[in-house]
Design brief:
This protein is of the alpha/beta class. It has a single domain (6-131), classed as TIM Barrel (Alpha-Beta Barrel). It is 32% helix and 20% strand. The chain contains six helices and six strands, in the order βαβαβαβαβααβ. The protein has helices spanning 17-21, 41-47, 69-76, 92-102, 113-117, 119-125; strands at 6-10, 27-31, 57-60, 83-86, 106-110, 128-131. It has a six-stranded parallel sheet with strand order 1-2-3-4-5-6. Helix 4 (92-102) runs parallel beside helix 6. The longest helix has 11 residues, at 92-102. The chain is globular.
Length: 136
């Protein structure tokens, strides 16, 4: 994925999905995590049913251990996605379990010292690593 452009779109803004798909970006990341306020998380998950077809779509779920993670995983199951972005990846064990359950490519987002310390092991289980410099 060298030279690939990703365009983030808040999941609670479905009116932007088609525009993002037509933007020329190589992949679209529909964001359920930081771009969506807690009060809008349910509506954002419901909007996933309106994803455009014919585009490389990834969904960034809320991190493991958050109040929304399990509901995000349930909402994306059955969707035709290019992959999932897993934020706050800190554990090789959880990343392995997550990747096995998802059965589609996972981009593990390293955003903490714990994630950095475990990044070699996390990389063995995920399709790609990404570095979240803002949260780090």
């Amino acid at each position: 994925m060298v030279g690939v452009s990703f365009l983030f779109v808040p999941a609670d803004r479905p009116e932007r999905f088609d525009k993002a798909a037509a933007s020329g970006a190589d992949a679209i990341i529909i964001d359920l995590e930081d771009a969506v306020a807690p009060a809008a998380k349910s509506a954002a998950r419901a909007a996933l049913g309106t994803l455009p077809t014919g585009a490389e779509i990834f969904v960034r779920v809320n991190g493991h251990g958050s109040a929304w993670h399990d509901e995000d995983i349930a909402a994306i199951s059955g969707l035709s996605l290019a992959g999932i972005v897993l934020p706050k990846a800190e554990s090789a064990e959880y990343t392995l379990d997550f990747c096995c359950r998802c059965k589609i490519p996972v981009i593990a987002l390293i955003e903490s010292a714990a994630g950095l310390a475990a990044c070699r092991q996390i990389a063995q289980h995920s399709a790609r690593l990404a570095f979240g410099s803002i949260d780090f």
